[in-house]
Fold these 3 entries.
Entry 1:
Amino acid sequence: MIFATVGTQLPFDRMLTSLDNWAAHNPGIPVFAQTGDSPGSFPHLDTVASLSQVEFQTRFERARLVVAHAGMGTILSAAEVGKPLILMPRRMKFKEHRTDHQQDTANEMARLSNVTVVQDGQTLCKELDRALASGFQLPPAAASQESADLEELLGAIQDFVWDRPVQQASTKPADQSGAA
């Protein structure tokens, strides 16, 4: 199953329409979408406006692939459970958001091995085809210091967003007695 989410704040019909078009050509692949307050009709998707946190987590865990706006909650959830994620950032020029902060977020998160960023419906469909052809397998992770730094940043954001205790380095002064 493919799970799609647009978050809870704004509709995102550009992404949902593209996903619906893809689903029309791939009827054997179930696609479940959380659509928010979208006025659109998506006949090839199984849709719901909103999900409880438990329902969201269950759908997320069952999914083989997640398609989403570039919201940090979704990105963090995908990183936490290791799901392949296709991000389509909302764009200010299409009046999908008030700023292009999702574009900035997507550009940074594209460095993660489980994240693919698309800008339009045609590319979304192409990436969905590619994911389907690969059996929804994650590409091999590229090991680099930049990826490690990004993983550390994601961990810090998760701790902040989900209010988990932060593990800090010890601030205990070193033993200065000279004893060996």
Entry 2:
Amino acid sequence: MTIVDYVTSTFPNQSQDFKNQLVNSGRLMKVAAGEELMSIGGAFKTIPVIVDGSIKVVREDDDGNELFLYYLTEGQTCAMSLNCCLMSKASEVRATAEEDTVLISIPGDSAGRWMSDLPEWRDFILNTYQLRFREMLHTIDGIAFQQLDERVLQYLKDKAEVHEANEVKLTHQAIADDLNSSREVVSRILKILEKNEKIELHRNRIVLL
């Protein structure tokens, strides 16, 4: 598929002017699963718009412990990259391709200019900030108010939804890393969830019931 095909299928309800701007200024990029797009402390001069696949965004402390924040999926962009690019700030998150992903890379100067010249882009960006803010609140609520078993189950549901499947392929250690817990604790919780018929456990694979 060409960049025109991706823009047309991803933004069918946007104006032709909006689509033309993305096509003319953007650059189509393909990112392999596991490839890092944004590192903590790194500079970011472009804004990614996802047109296929998904990106996982995590926070990291000084000791290297990670905390999962949210996924970026088709038709979405990252508020953190906007902040880095438009305000010339270092990245405070790590973004990694969850699967083979296609994105349109928008130069920062174009993105900044469109904020005043292209109302649809401005609305797109404002909606992005609102969505990411809600997801950040969701993460905070999970840490503050949910038991870890509830967080694990919700994490599995979110991951399955991103992949449009009823199962996820990952290790207990990967779950522990994303939730800033230990593998032993996560394994114990997964066994309880299986006993309660919420999930089925297989080798490096979990089925949601």
Entry 3:
Amino acid sequence: MKAIITVLAGLLLFGCANGVEELAKQGSWNKIGYQDGVRGQLPRTYSALQKLGPADHAEYERGYQIGVIEFCDADFAYQIGLSGQYYTGACEGLPDAQRFRMEWQRGWSEYSN
């Protein structure tokens, strides 16, 4: 039940989120990083951030780290895989990365069948 509530809250959050270009105009690099991390995306490169505007890479990285830690909760990895979301490897290097990957794979296998 907790996983369903978390997934729904995340979808609501992203449904209301400003576009990346708008956030960059506002200088909200922390929010851009958080959104990328909590979606399980790999971090944007410095050059990719610079294309959006005069990026504050340190703020982006701080937000990304918070978001990716939320995304990489192995207790929700099965639901992420079951929903059909592809895993990019964003959790590699974190303490629970192997468990996350195994649970995601279990959900992904069920989704794919």
